[in-house]
């Protein structure tokens, strides 16, 4: 859900249901790193409701696009983390079997 | 006056930060009273006045990020993640604890319970047993669904103590899996009978007491109840860095080595009978601040943490091996992003 002014698309608040700090803090990190963003932050209106408000203000691009780009960046980062992790585990396993063979 | 090019004058921005700012950006300084510079400088324009671009460049992240596995066993693993922001590391930790699904006993149909343990206590304890099954093979069951082999696992427990027999202790291996006509692979069994440590005792009872019950296990997430959490725990710490700011020699060196409870420092012989202290195992440092306690030690030893180097430890309860758990957690974060993207479009 996006709450913002219909005339000014560069600043709006996105209210996400069923989310908490897990996604909101990660998205806030990627948003902050985007040079088009002048302000971003998130808040949790009440801890019993699983709802997060993410505020984005940009230098000119519509806030929705900037948020979508930040989420895409986050997804790319996650995919990279996953592939690096799998490679590292595979490497560890092969080096361990080599070591075990050497000891024998 | 030597001729210096205008580009080499000290106040011209060169594209990288001066060393003291780089220290503030990448290290947490742990002083004896409180840590300083604990926040990560995320804003892309933070160093705009110095001419340094702090924005996220995905190619740079992909280049600098690395993972090193230190220890990997069936039940737990320890690995290092370098080049990642604490918000992502924390997101992975939170997902590992609360949002990776597993199977756990939810409904217990008790036919007979004449033991000293009450029905509800027994049912609660049954729920907490880890079930060694791949939860990805199952679907969630909602209120209206009938239990079938796609969403439920059924266990049976029937133990009776004979009159004038010895006292019996009921352990988790008494649970027998009932395969009510399912096509599921045979390697599913309740987490049992590894004499090392995995048996859980429920109750002990004596003459002519009996427990007969059927337990249904369903898929759920740690968010709803902790019995569905796939890790006994998952945590991370930032890599500690111990730096000697001044030469520490002879008696002071001996004192320093003795002070540290985890033997971070070592003595090195420099020759001519002089001894010097060096940092040998900074990774083991627990930041207890013993080495900077006392007069003047703060000038000689600096304790720091590296802000983007995380030492992750994951201890699994057995349902899934720890490396699979981490990959599932990252997949879940990707799914969350995708869900929000589709909602926005």
UniProtKB/TrEMBL annotation, chain A:
Residues 12-83 form the DNA-directed RNA polymerase RBP11-like dimerisation domain. It comes from the Eukaryota. The keyword tRNA-binding does not apply. SUPFAM superfamilies: RBP11-like subunits of RNA polymerase. Keywords: DNA-directed RNA polymerase, Nucleus, Transcription. GO terms for cellular component: RNA polymerase I complex; RNA polymerase III complex. GO terms for molecular function: DNA binding; DNA-directed RNA polymerase activity; protein dimerization activity. The keyword tRNA-binding does not apply. GO terms for biological process: transcription by RNA polymerase III; transcription elongation by RNA polymerase I. It is found in: Nucleus. Signal peptide: none annotated. Its main location: nucleus. Belongs to the archaeal Rpo11/eukaryotic RPB11/RPC19 RNA polymerase subunit family. This is DNA-directed RNA polymerases I and III subunit RPAC2. The gene is LOC104601162.
Automatic annotation (TrEMBL), chain B:
Pfam families: RNA_pol_A_bac (PF01000), RNA_pol_L (PF01193). Residues 76-343 form the DNA-directed RNA polymerase RpoA/D/Rpb3-type domain. Keywords: DNA-directed RNA polymerase, Nucleus, Transcription. GO terms for biological process: DNA-templated transcription. Its main location: nucleus. GO terms for molecular function: DNA binding; DNA-directed RNA polymerase activity; protein dimerization activity. This is DNA-directed RNA polymerases I and III subunit RPAC1.
